[in-house]
Amino acid sequence: MSVVFQVEWYKRVSSTNDVCQQYATKGADEGIVVAAEFQEQGRGQRGNAWESQEGQNLTFSVLLRPNFLPVAEQFYLSKAISLAVSDWLVAYVTNKPVKIKWPNDIYIGDSKVCGILIENSFSSQYLESSVVGVGINLNQVSFPDDLPNPTSLLLETGSRVDPRKALAELVSCIYGRYQQLTEGYRENIDNDYFNAIYRKNQLCKYYSNGEEFYATIIGIQPTGELVLRTAEGAIRTFAFKEVTFII
Q1: Rounded Cα distance, 191 and 86, in Å
Q2: Were both Cys, which of 104, 111, 172, 236 would link to 82 (CB 3.0–4.6 Å)?
Q3: Burial of 130 (0-12, 13-18, 19+ CB in 10 A)
Q4: With helix as H, strand as E and coil as C, how does 49-78 read?
Q5: How far from chain centre, in Å, is Cα 28?
C-alpha cells in the first residue's frame, strides 16, 4: 500500500517528534510530516539535545505505521530511513563520501550533517507506530563548541538549500525506501546499508568500557548490533551505546 504524505510546517514547536507522537496517539494515519523552523526541545540520540539555529536547517518528523514489521526486525526501518537521507545527500555532495555512521548518523567525510531519532510503539510482536525524527544541517555555518564534528550542506558545497525544497525531495526519498521495505526487498536494503557504512573495512580506533582499541567493521547483525574485528583478530559485537567511534 502506498503512503500519501501530508506536510505541515510550523514556525516553532517543542519538538517535531512530540507533535507527531500526538498524532500517533490520536490514531492518525501514517504519512503525516511535521516540519518546524525551530524546535525548542529538539531531541537527538541517547537523550542528547539537537541544537539548530532557527530557520537555517531542516528538522522534521514523519509518522509511519509499519505494522508489517516484527518488533525484532525494527532496525530495518532505521536502515531504510538512513538510506533515504543518504540518497538525497549524494545528489548535492560530489566531492566527499556521504556515509552512514552506525547506527544512523549521516556523515559527509568525517563530519556529521544529520541525526535521526526513531521512536517505535508496539503492543504485539509487530510495530504499531513509528515516529521518525530527522535533523539535517542545511545552511548553518557556526556551531556550539561542544559539538565534536558538525558540518552543513552549505559548508560542504558553498550553496544554500531552501528547507521546503529539501523537505519535498527528502519525502520522495523516504517514500522510495519505505516502499522497498513494505514490498519485502530486505536484501537490497541490507546490501545498500552495509555498502554505505562509515569506516567499513577500515582499521580505525574505537572506545568501549574504558578501553581504546583498533578494529575493522565487518558486519551489522539483523537486530542492529555492530560487529568488529580487532587488530588482534578477535570478533566483538556491540549494541547501541556500547562503543564509541574515535574520530
Answers
A1: 14
A2: 104
A3: buried
A4: ECCCCCCCCEEEEEEECCCCCEHHHCHHHH
A5: 23
Cβ neighbours of residue 144 under 8 Å, at least 6 residues apart? 51
The pTM for the full model equals 0.93
Describe the crossing of helices 163-182 and 186-195 by its angle, rounded to 10 degrees: 130
Condensed to tens digits (0 to 9), the pLDDT of residues 82-111 reads 999 999 999 999 999 999 999 999 999 999
Interatomic CA distance for residues 222 and 48, integer angstroms: 26
Query: What value, to the nearest 5°, has the Cα angle with vertex 135 and ends 130 and 138?
Result: 150
Cell of 213: 582499541
3-state secondary structure 127-138: CCEEEEEEEECC
CA pair distance 132, 151, nearest whole angstrom? 22
Q: How far apart are CA 131 and CA 17, in angstroms?
A: 6
Confidence of residue 229 (pLDDT cuts 50, 70, 90): very high
